[in-house]
Amino acid sequence: MALPQLKLLVNLARIDGEVAEREKKYITNIGLANGVPLPDVVQLLEKSHENIDLSNLTDELKFSYLLSLVQLMKIDERLYQEEIRYCSQVASRLGYEQTVMFDMMLHVRETMEDHEKKALRDLTQKYLSK
Predict the structure, then answer these.
(1) Could you report the per-residue pLDDT of 62-106, keeping only the tens digit for each?
(2) DSSP 8-state class, residue 127
(3) Among 90, 55, 43, 50, which Cα is nearest to 70's?
(4) Euclidean distance between CA atoms 84 and 91, whole angstroms
């Protein structure tokens, strides 16, 4: 299930024209943690991806995808309108109201403890349509 998530992250990282080293490392770590071989991750980083299937995801996976996108967006400590717009569109495709981005932007940090992630997941659950 990690391939769609990695493709979303690659698309976000490529928005500003190049994938920074910290972004590559973040995406690679997520890929490796989910059993995606390094050569496959490297290949994914080389191009943008269309038609990413986001159907049949659990609420937990939806939150995980959105959290990783916002963490990646904030990793270089510069926020671009295009990145925020992309994350909002993905949130919508995942079944969230786009206003979920307000809470995500406010609370997401590059590294978060499990209890912080759970509290944020509980907070953002109200934005998820059933």
Answers:
(1) 999 999 999 999 987 777 889 999 999 999 999 999 999 999 999
(2) G
(3) 90
(4) 10
